Amino acid sequence: MKDLRFLVYACLVLLVMPALSIKSSAQTLPADELDSLQNLVSATTDDSIRGRALNKLGFHFIFNENDKALPLLDRGLAEADRFGLLFGKAELLNTKAIYFDIMGVKDSAELYFAKSLELSEANGFHSVRVLTLNGMGLFFWKNGRFDEALSYFYQALEMNAQFFPQQEESKANYLSNIGLIFQELRQYDKAINHHNQSLEIRQRLGLVNGEAISFANLGVCYIKIEQYDQAEQFYLKAIDKSETAGNWRMYYSLHDNLANLYSLTDRPQLAIEAYKKALERPASVGENPKSDLSAYINIAAYYNDLKQPRISLQYSAKGDSILQKFPQLYNFSEGLHYARGISHFLLGNHDQGMLHMKEYSQVLDSVFSDRNAQAVAEIEKMFKTIEKDNTILKQQQTIQQKELDLQRRTLWAVSLISLVLIVSGFLFSLFKRKEAIARQAHLELSLAEQKEVARIQEERLRISRELHDNIGSYLTLLSASVEQLKERQVNGSAEKLQDLQDNLNMSMRELRKTVWLLNKQVVTVDELGIRLRDFFKPLHQNGTRIVVSTGENSGQTLTEIQTTHLFRILQEAINNAYKYSGCSLIDVKLRIEEGTTLCFVVEDDGKGFDQETIGSGNGLRNMHSRMEELQGELKIRSIPNKGTVVEGCFGVQNTNIFV
Question: Which of 153, 244, 371, 376 is least surrounded by CB atoms within 10 angstroms?
Fold first, then answer.
């Protein structure tokens, strides 16, 4: 959803620009207003008005003909210095910072934001200061420095409440910005809270474009917490409001996001329609080739799933035309080659299919190399950060040592007065020294643990990518080939082919589950419940109903080790009940007791068994072994003709286990 994030950022830059003396500020000025401003710059003798007109012209050209923006802003700054127009200078410095931010010159952008903030603070220009604070927040958000961005947004919100309480639209913008930072920090409950506060103000003031932005942000948040129905409703509201506001870029971009949501919730027909709507974007709105390429790839993949390979090839060809026009998108084209390969396999063109699969592999290899280069850059950045932290730590230790020396000298002087004070001072200094050593050791241990966790997580992500990109693709290819064989079936082979198809589908589901487990360091009880329902969904089709419920405190998190063991225990218990008990209902309950213990129960209404006569197989031994590793206890109770109950508990109070 990076396209939507950039779009929201661009809209926010416009929403927070100062209202100049010549009506409102907008990204693109009408031709008559542009001419009027240029004439005003040439004709007016009022230095203040000319400076503000130059500021507005410069802002206009930032987003249109950016080579004209900087000379106008520099001219305005020179005149502001010549005539001592400090307020106009503060405004121009802020606009020049925005110019460098949009142009990607980070150091200069940060420098001019700082100059504008310093000047406005020194002279009490509150209106410029609050805008500069917000601009710095946007700058740091765009560059991934989220803690600093959050600090500046909160300062802007506090200043707005103190000096401009009547400007509720600005308050709504700052609340929205804070919500965006909490999204980046994955604190979605706080993000939703701030977006709702912003939305309430915008609805009360009738700010339709602002409502569209708030609805879109809420949709993103609810997707992240897997409340897809809520997300869909907010996206639909955002689309309606952006259409009313005439914000067509957001309107078509939101259709692309809605299509992604439909893909995520396995609604292919709705996804296809939404992608097609996104592709109807008129030329006047502007090109978005990366988004269009992604849409064509997804549509082609869906038509392959619907066994309509000829239509799929039509959309693949449209995607290829974008790739020809924008060759820099090569690293994003693996899905295009894969979809074309599957289409040709479905049509029986095996040579063509293999050719496109070879291209698919070549793109993957290229992307993998690029990602390796990015990983090396990230490691270098991390190393520099660690060096900086070590330098700070050494400085702290030097200060602590000096303090310790001072304490010793003081104790020596006091010793001349009283023996009691000497003993007390000595004990105190000894305690402080041990405390400092323990604190330093703790810091070093924490740093080592963090580095090891980061290394392991990178390896887990690499393994999950390899599983997905290699084994997953070949399983999908094999599944498509089996589909063709079924169409050419020989007498008596249909049943075997169906069994093979079922096994392939189960293998692919198991692979996706394994990739999910590898990608998660911590998992909530709610997330585990959702995955259990999804994993055992095929059993519903065979007449066995599986109910998974989570009790209170289901937001409690589990480590990846706890999640893996618990999932495998529940999987074995449910599979045993399904295979051997002849049950019609399997009830799975997960609950947190006293905030520190997770308990689970798997109960079926099957025929049960006699525990005295049934031996312990590998499956039961593995279940007990996994519970021992979790430092918990597993119990199995069964009565013939009355069903079976498998239950257990283990401690989850510490989810920060070093793995």
Answer: 376
Residue bearing tokens 């401003």: 37
Angle value at C-alpha 370, between 367 and 374, nearest 5 degrees: 135
The tokens describing 335, both together, are 């899905």
Please name the amino acid found at residue 34: L
Evaluate whether 167-264 and 521-651 have a shared fold: no
Tell me, what amino acid is at 342?
Answer: I
- Residue 516 Cα to chain centre, angstroms: 16
Can you tell me whether residue 612 is helix, strand or coil? coil
CATH architecture, range 521-651: 2-Layer Sandwich (3.30)
Residue 257 CB neighbour total at 10 angstroms: 23
| Domain 167-264, architecture per CATH | Alpha Horseshoe (1.25)
Backbone angles phi, psi at 286, to 5 degrees: 110, 155
C-alpha distances (whole Å) from 182 to each of 170, 177, 187, 228, 459 are 19, 9, 5, 19, 28
Region class of 595: left (phi > 0), else alpha (psi between -120 and 50), else beta: left
At residue 389, what are phi and psi to the nearest 5 degrees? -65, -40
- The enclosing H or E element of 322 equals helix 309-325
Q: For residue 337, give the nearest of 349, 355, 325 by alpha carbon.
A: 355
- Determine the Cα–Cα distance for residues 25 and 465; give it in Å rounded to an integer: 47
pTM across the whole model:
0.52
Please give the Cα distance from 513 to 521 (Å, whole number): 14
State the angle between helix axes of 47-62 and 86-103 in degrees (0 to 180), rounded to the nearest 10.
10
Residues 267-304 have pLDDT tens digits of 999 999 999 998 888 887 777 888 888 889 999 998 98
**Which pair of tokens denotes residue 425?**
């001072």
Q: Which of 68, 628, 10 is nearest to 288 (CA)?
A: 10
Q: Which CA distances in Å does 42 have to 39, 50, 91?
A: 5, 8, 20
What the block records as the tokens of 617 is 């197989």
Give the model confidence (pLDDT) of 501-523 as tens digits: 666 666 666 666 666 666 666 78
